[in-house]
Amino acid sequence: MKGRIDKRQAILEGAFTVFARLGYAQSCVQDIAHEAGVAKPTVYNHMTDKATLFRHALEAAARTALDRRIAALEPLAAPGDDLRATLEEVAYALLELHTDGSSCALRRLLFSEITHFPDILDIVKESGPDRLNQALADRLARLALTGHLRTTDPDLTAEQFLALLLGPLEARTQLGTRELEEAELRTMARGTVETFLRAWAS
Predict the structure, then answer these.
(1) What does the pLDDT look like over 153-191, one tens digit per residue?
(2) What is the domain range of residue 167?
(3) Disulfide check for 149: which of 30, 91, 120, 144 has CB 3.0–4.6 Å away?
(4) 3-state DSSP call for residue 75?
(5) Does residue 71 lie within any of the structural domains?
(6) 89: domain CATH number?
């Protein structure tokens, strides 16, 4: 069973790599099999066709990205005495994750193929911004209960934090084609937290 799971994972990762590099139309199952290190029939044993493989590859990549983002929120569970520093740490971590190669590739694939695969909107709902917003809202609600923040609507507060943080990224990264230096990411994180705390700090 473990070998089958490992092969499936390799196929999904290989498929995402190939789709990200070539796009859906130009990708072929043979290329994906080669990238995954398996035989072409093995791909078909796990996935019935290229379209199914595409959906599953995007879903797996989106779930991995979400898990990493939610893990980045962990410092908010115990922010200590310096909430500003903790928020800046979390903001910087989220910016790093949002601008890494895998995340940029995932967004490009979603945008380019959404008209051909409208059902991939479900992937966005299950493993996208809404889930991250929910997770952040939970952390902010706890901070409000402990007197760190003065929000009565954690969902709105989380939405505004993420809008301040991620809103400028598409323009700054030129739709994911320009890499941002650490100093620029840290400046963005500080600016987000400064504005956020002016609105919501106790």
Answers:
(1) 999 999 999 999 999 998 898 877 889 999 999 999 999
(2) 58-200
(3) 144
(4) helix
(5) yes
(6) 1.10.357.10
Buried b / exposed e over 101-125, threshold 16 CB at 10 Å, is ebbbbbbbbbeebeeebeebeebbe
> Do 162 and 63 lie in a common domain?
yes
Q: Is 20 in the same domain as 86?
A: no
Cα separation of 83 and 78, whole Å?
A: 9
Backbone phi and psi for residue 171, each to the nearest 5 degrees, phi listed first: -70, -45
CA 112/CA 131 separation, integer angstroms: 22
Euclidean distance between CA atoms 35 and 17, whole angstroms: 8
Let me know whether 123 and 37 are in one domain.
no
SS3 of 149, please?
strand
Query: pTM here?
Result: 0.91
- Residue 47 near residue 53, CB atoms below 8 Å: yes
Q: Tell me the per-residue pLDDT of 109-163, one tens digit each, with 9 for 90 and over.
A: 998 999 999 998 888 778 888 999 999 999 999 999 999 999 999 999 999 999 9
- 139-173 burial string, b = 16+ CB within 10 Å, else e? bbbbbbeeebbebeebeebbbbbbebbbeebeeeb
